[in-house]
Amino acid sequence: MKLTIKSQLFKHTVIMTAVNLIMRSAGVAFNAYLTRKIGSAGIGLFQLVMSVYSLAVTFSCAGIRLAGTRIIVEASALGKTDIRKSLRICLAFAAICGSFFGILLFSLSGIIGSVCLSNVQTASSLRILAVSLPFVAMSSAFGGYFTATGLIPQYSFVQMLEQASKIGIVVYLTDKLSTRGTAYACMAIVAGMTASEIISFLLSSALNAVTSPQKSDKPPAKLFRLLRIAIPDAAGACTRSILLTAEHLLIPRGFEKSGSGCAEALAAYGRIHAMAMPVMLYPSAVISSLSALLVPELARLGEIGDRAAINASVKRNLKRTIVFSSVCAVIFGIFAPSISKAVYKTAEAAEYIRILSPLIPVMYTDMITDGMLKGLDQQFYSMKYNIIDSALCVILVIALLPKYAVKGYILILYASELINFYLSLGRLLTVCEIKIFTRFRASSKLQASRNTPVRLKICSNARPEYEYQIYRDRAKHSQAP
Q1: Is the pLDDT of residue 244 over 50?
Q2: pTM score, two decimals?
Q3: Which residues contact 394 (CB under 8 A, 6 or more apart)?
Q4: Element (H or E) spanning 469, and its range?
């Protein structure tokens, strides 16, 4: 019997969650290994290199995954365009963007290392990472395609192979090069990351060759449609990423101005972003999986005009996320020392885990909210809120860190997450006209629209153009692999 939409969504969520948990378990364990291998200061330096790389990845990939997902959803739901030809348009666009910014990063690596990072040795790591950008961009297009076509189990297997190859290569190279110093250890890590991105692209290409549908006489999706989604998204995402990169580069300098030494500043920065945050975000594998799957699901419901199903899905997933994240926050708050010792064999991260644990419900709910806004064509508002959030963070880092050091940075994290959460959730509830934890009563106009067989337009001034793939830039590319 053919799976219903709800059961298929549940099945794919379970698969993606299982894979994400496996990958995050490996990632957290690997973070612990790298911390022991190169120390907190080395991890802090690696985080600085990753902050620049995150910016390059954002420029290379902005809008590509979302554009791919929405174009493939439209092709399958409306049947007016050919899926294979549409995917080729997405891949060509991704290859051009990735290659351009890869060449740019490679050429400017020396200037970035000496001027922005104040360490000329990081230039070699940036050059190695520049090679990966075309493959990262094209893999992003494949990710949108596989999500839209429901090939979640197969693509999850590809992601697991990518993670395994990354860990294996990095372990081998780190053992060979870490004794030469922190800069060489950083080069070993980024070399493993670059190799794994190339492997991921090759595996995705092979999967597409095996599973792609038959050719048809239908035309591909129009390039204008792709650009209409991707270009405005790139403008917004890149603006925010520039601000976020500036924030991360200013943080260690702010710590130093407060009286902390360079090594101590990098260590504090590393304990927060490379030790505490990965552990706290570990259970969010469930939320990130569901969030990614809700994009094409809500987009399909929008195509057929089922507003009642959209509202019910949004309300149901918000409730579940709030309950789940609250339980996680309590567990992390109570057992922070035990968790830190179990993962890192030290209690260094325990203080930060406990202090930041109340933010878990905010961060998790913000993840699911962003995913649902993407599916409802409300990405412009999400983009606007993220830019406001990042601009505020840069101002607060300059103002507070030199005086309050780590305490000031924790205050900034709270302000940033709460403001973004308030704005994003407010927009979602306004669009869907629902109330959380109260009996849902639709207006008479909404009730009348339930049986209207027309395509749903969520908001007359909505702009279908924003996707921010690296979950608030603090996940895949802002932490150790």
Answers
A1: yes
A2: 0.65
A3: 243, 246, 247, 250
A4: none
Inter-axis angle of helices 360-375 and 379-432, nearest 10:
90
Q: Is the pLDDT at 427 greater than 80, yes or no? A: yes
Contact 304, 77 (CB under 8 A): yes
> What does the pLDDT look like over 173-226, one tens digit per residue?
888 776 777 778 888 888 999 999 999 999 999 988 888 776 766 766 677 777
Tokens (6 digits) for 138: 């094209």
118: left (phi > 0), else alpha (psi -120 to 50), else beta?
left
Residues 465 and 443: their CA atoms lie apart, in Å, by 29
CA–CA separation, 18 and 182 (whole Å): 34
268 and 260 Cβ atoms separated by less than 8 Å? yes
Lowest mean pLDDT among 39-48, 204-213, 325-334, 351-360: 39-48
Going by pLDDT thresholds of 50, 70 and 90, the confidence category of residue 261 is: low
Report the alpha-carbon distance of residue 47 to residue 306 in Å, rounded. Answer: 44
Structural contact between residues 382 and 373, judged by C-beta atoms closer than 8 angstroms: yes
User: What's the token pair of residue 309?
Assistant: 């199903």
CB 134 within 8 A of CB 120: no
Q: What is the DSSP string of 198-266?
A: HHHHHHHHHHHHHHPPPP-SSPPPPHHHHHHHHHHHHHHHHHHHHHHHHHHHHHHHHHHHTT--HHHHH
Give, rounded to a whole angstrom, the gap between the first and last alpha carbons of the chain.
Answer: 40
CA atoms within 13 A on the CB side of 64: 30
